[in-house]
């Protein structure tokens, strides 16, 4: 197990390097540069050249790449072209909101997904199963931005129960302690529910079908003949093996903490990584774009590592084949 | 829901949507002209009268009085009085799904956006199918070096957060429709390559393939007669689900304003437009959202239905 983790962590380095290089190629191949986005009529050719020189944009591409790679290896992510602050500080500001939003959504996704699937599997083709699979299918097909818009319209604009956007209210910006936390959670409800409910529909649908597969296994029949209660059979004997693919799904959906929430962050003006990437890409803010992309890649890779470790912890069968 | 019923419902839904988007404009009566001054943000089902002038302009208003001496077109701010000589035709029409802020018919925009979404997702799915199955077959049959090289490439591409890549490329390159389909296709073939490689490797050891090879069948014969028919099921299931994902991805990009050029009506873009006036015009975002959902759900039903058939076939 430890060897598996260590080996996979070591593999992380070349993988991240390859992803970063790919991202660099995409950015370098794109027409235009940061200087183009400063659309100032008084910007003379000399000023433009000076600007490009200051950000190293006048250098040949391979020189830019090596310079960027060198500072990356030294742990320096550079300085944002636009806000002139170190990228690391920018990330420190935008990563926690994204993790908060994504984590809350993921929690909702899995808790609700598992509860719904188990409730549906208690009586296959019963009324609850029919209604919930019908609703789940509908919810899984809805685009998240549309659900978010509807939620804002109903719960923020018409009913006024929750704020429509942002992470904190202006009045609460100085608040700390319980009042500030309550304000934050109040803002979190709508975006987390939009992200989590759509995900829960998919998780429940997926888990229900694996639960159905496991129900047909002989050891379930064996458990039943031993006189175990239906509840015990469902929650222990059926759910545990059926959860395995869901755990893999959990690891694979970790990247959605970073990338899947771009849309939701945009709709709710949530000050996270997704929104940062979007504005950085528009502004050709290369250091920020590169840093966020690397962060996303690390999240994807750690997610699949986490999935493997978790499934090894749950399922003894996968432990034996692991190197 | 029984599997075959789901499959049929999905196929019917998809067929209906395609027919509506492609042939809807031909069959349905022509929509009223766009008139931002008088016909903006009319609710679904609003009956309007369309007055076409000799100079080619069209005035559309819910409230038009046609008299012998004058035709009065009422607007929110002022009324326009026209003499019959200025008017070419007067026609009653209806905004079935309401009108947008520019006074355009939402229903016909929805159909145009649907053609567009379907074409882009379809083209992207074909690209993904071609690239994914070529890479998968090459990896499965090309020897250990090719195999591990191609699979490592797949790993790296899969480690790239997909939406990030799409956002980067779409923002930096500003692609047109065909380029967008190409980008979507080129970023979504990796899962397919893994699937095809796994299927081919699994099939290669099966006795009927060995028997065919032992009987002296050529490689192309084995591929055509044994590999392709066995791949068709998993591939079509995967493609149905992938199409749904592609539709959602295209819609998300259009929603973020980085899809194809803003002038083109796309479902995602229409939702974004609708969200700016969600209180005054709830119907603007509602219908394109439901259209996306209907399309994605149909595709999911088709994918699940094929899956059920495959597992049932494997059991019997």
Characterize the structure shown:
The complex is a heterodimer of chains A (323) and B (316). In chain A, helix 1 packs antiparallel against helix 14. With 323 residues, chain A is mainly alpha-helical. The N and C termini of chain A lie close together (8 Å). Helices cover 77% and strands 0% of the residues of chain A. The mean pLDDT of chain A is 80. Chain A has 15 helices and no strands. With 316 residues, chain B is mainly α. In chain B, the strands form two sheets. Chain B has a three-stranded antiparallel β-sheet, with no helix packed on it. In chain B, strands 3-4-5 form a three-stranded antiparallel β-sheet, with no helix packed on it. In chain B, strand 3 and strand 4 form a beta hairpin. In chain B, helix 1 packs across helix 10, helix 3 runs antiparallel to helix 6 and helix 7 packs across helix 8. The two termini of chain B are 21 Å apart. The mean pLDDT of chain B is 84. Classes of the chains: A mainly alpha (323), B mainly alpha (316). At the A-B interface, helix 1, helix 6, helix 7, helix 12 and helix 13 of A face helix 3, helix 4, helix 8, helix 9 and helix 10 of B.
Would you summarize the structure shown here?
By secondary structure, chain A is an all-alpha fold.
Order of the strands making up the biggest sheet of chain B: 2-1-6
**Main pleated-sheet profile of chain A:** none
Question: Total helix count of chain A?
Answer: 15
Structural class of chain A: mainly alpha
Global mean pLDDT of chain A: 80
Name the helicity range of chain A: over 70%
Radius of gyration of chain B: 26 Å
Q: Separation of termini of chain B?
A: 21 Å
Low-confidence runs of chain A = none
DSSP strand count of chain A: 0
